[in-house]
Every structure is written in structure tokens, then in C-alpha cells.
Amino acid sequence: MLIEVDEGRCVGCGRCAADCVGSNLRVEAGVARVRGRCILCGHCVAVCPEEAVSIPCLDMADVEPAAPAAETIDAAALLRAIKSRRSVRDYLPRRVGDEALSLVLEAGRYTATAKNAQGCRFIVVQDGLEELKRIVWDGIDGLLELPASEAPRWTGPYRSFARDVRRDPARDFLFRNAPAALFVAAERADDAGLAAQSMELVAASAGLGALYNGYLCRAVEAIPQARAFVGADERPLQVCMLLGYPAVSYARTAPRKPGDFVVR
User: Fold this and answer.
1) pLDDT band at 66 (very low <50, low <70, confident <90, very high)
2) Domains and CATH numbers, the chain
3) CB neighbours of residue 146 within 10 Å
């Protein structure tokens, strides 16, 4: 059984049953009982006012009281933070701290996934970044040496990237000078994208800058040695995000095109 109900704590209020996505809980004889299918969403744990419900196969030690209304983020302040974020392409030569990195990863872990699959793998390369650079650029060089008819079509733009980095290692279009690269491997691109958005917002709150790098993601995904190095297993790499402390600051938000909104 996936869900456990402490009958000594349960008061039969029915909140868990009413909020259960799979109609997996019912109140019988004044106590919540488990019935049917569970997708491990955790709503029953979160909604119970008596802490009577648990899911032992999940990390119950990480459950904490929800933030009270007074501590929720002001909507206008959050919007301003979203408007203020920038894609950072220049980083300080400073290691990303373990505490900040842990917050970023937890944001990805707690982001919603389709059918509550929780199927994302979050991969951080920091200590091994120089080795990953070597593997990626060696792989790209090898592919670019192939006859044009045999080289994968995606390698076209990488020819100029490789030429620049050979002339000047500081002109590394793929890795910039970021101290860390974060990859998200997942079967579903939307799951990875949602997690990446949450992680970027927390990264910005922790003083970090981020850059989504599709070129690097594609290269690592396509080069077997690079995939093996990062440990993506059978799931495709969907997102790559460079992380580090920004070497540039921005005084104001940037303009955008008028919104294309439809409200019915």
C-alpha cells in the first residue's frame, strides 16, 4: 500500500478524499481509508490538517508546513523579477556554492510533471567541466573532419564555433566561461522545460545568472562519449543551462514586443 493513514490522528474530515486526484481515498466509519490507484501526487499529505497521512516510499522527512499567506510572494514583485532576469553570457571566475546549487536543484525536483511522473534527472557538471569541454570539442572536431556528405546536418553552425575556440579559448561559444553546466534529462520536453524555469528563478534569487544553451545540449546529446560522461542514461537531454555568478549587472528591464494575448 502506497499511502498510510494513522487512525489515531485521523479525524475523518474528508479533505484528503475530496482532493484526491484518483479518488483513491474514502472516509469510512470516521476514518480515511485507501482505495484504488495512487499517482503519488502527495495532495493527501499536504491537505491533511492532522498530519495523519504519509507516503513511506517518498521523502517524508522533507515535508514541512506550507508557507502562510503572509509569506507568499507578492505577484507584482514576482513579475518584476521575471522581467528583470537576463540571459547571462559572462561569468565571474567563482565556483557555484553548494547551498545555492542545492536550492536550484530542489526547485527542479519540486516542479510539477505530467502525470506526476517525476521523471527528470538533474545533472550538474562543475568539477568535471574541463573534462566535459575536452570531450565535447574533440567530438565536434571529429565530426567536422568527416566529408560534408557524412557529417550530421546539425554540425553546420559548429564549424565557426570550433574555429573561434581554436584561435582563442576564451571565445568558447558553447561553454562561455561559466563555472557549471546543468542538464535536465527527461522523456518529456515540457517536464524538463518547466523544471528549468523554476530552477532559473531560484538561481536568480540566489544571485546566480543562467543561460539556456541549446547548442551545447545538442552536442552533448549527439556525442556518445559526452552523454556517457554526464550520465544521462536512456533519457534524452532536453535542457542545458549554464550557471554562474554574473560578471555584468543590468540597471533596468529590457523591452519586449507587445503581448499577443487572447482572453475570451
Assistant:
1) confident
2) 4-62 (3.30.70.20), 75-244 (3.40.109.10)
3) 11
